[in-house]
Amino acid sequence: MIRIGILGDIGSGKSYVAKSFGHPVFNADEEVSKLYKGNKNIYNKFKKILPQYFTTFPINKIKVSEAILDNKKNLNKIIKIIHLEVQKKMKEFLNKNKNKKFVILDIPLLLENKINNKKDVLVFVQSKKRDITNRLKKRSNFNHKLIKKFSNIQLPLDYKRKKSDYIIKNDFTKKTISINIRNILKKLQNERNSS
To answer: Mind listing the domains of the chain with CATH numbers?
Structure first.
């Protein structure tokens, strides 16, 4: 199994690129949403450390945002709790797909939380700042301050780009993405066959 980790800026189209590979995808953001809706254990932990924000289950994303915006230390507290659960879910996903040729890891803090392996193939999604801003503004939950806080806990984009094995220049057209992905998978398949 070859693990492909997707890196890039917030709003650069990482999830779209991840899905476009056509192989099983582990999407950390989707997993977090499921945990907020269905995991009472996480709610109890949130309530214990931040009782003024969390009073009802399921966990309300707006309350999570409020907690983060009020105090930057809250973001680290929340990530600490969520991170362990996301790692459990990822292990389940990898077990379930252990016989697959490729799996895609769409995890915003893949390098920051040291979830990646040395053997992981890293793909950096590069998009123009203007395109990213326009896309983010279209999101229903767009909050500039919140995005800034999340950006601040991420490693510099230059570092991620240098760490990556491949770069996909995302112009947000299906054709460009498809061609890039086809080339990457072809190269990886060839390397696999020759090793």
So the answer is: 1-24+100-186 (3.40.50.300), 31-96 (no CATH)
